[in-house]
């Protein structure tokens, strides 16, 4: 086939939150991410996380640390009704 007829591969979808790329969000601290969030979430971050939320972050870090490089971590329950999902929660690799 001529080069003109070869279809270009579709690029992967880029994820953004309020104009910030996912890679940049992963590098940010919780306080920096809090500045991008709505007022209710900013207040929650300023006042501190509850024990449930700290335990959730520990579980996520543990499952991410135990998985080999390039693979997805083991599934763990991330449901807390009032908790907003941060970039740390969504990125598996």
From TrEMBL:
<comment type="similarity">
    <text>Belongs to the universal ribosomal protein uS19 family.</text>
</comment>
<dbReference type="GO" id="GO:0022627">
    <property type="term" value="C:cytosolic small ribosomal subunit"/>
</dbReference>
<protein>
    <recommendedName>
        <fullName>40S ribosomal protein S15</fullName>
    </recommendedName>
</protein>
<dbReference type="GO" id="GO:0003735">
    <property type="term" value="F:structural constituent of ribosome"/>
</dbReference>
<keyword id="KW-0689">Ribosomal protein</keyword>
<dbReference type="InterPro" id="IPR002222">
    <property type="entry name" value="Ribosomal_uS19"/>
</dbReference>
<dbReference type="GO" id="GO:0006412">
    <property type="term" value="P:translation"/>
</dbReference>
<dbReference type="GO" id="GO:0000028">
    <property type="term" value="P:ribosomal small subunit assembly"/>
</dbReference>
<dbReference type="InterPro" id="IPR023575">
    <property type="entry name" value="Ribosomal_uS19_SF"/>
</dbReference>
<keyword id="KW-0687">Ribonucleoprotein</keyword>
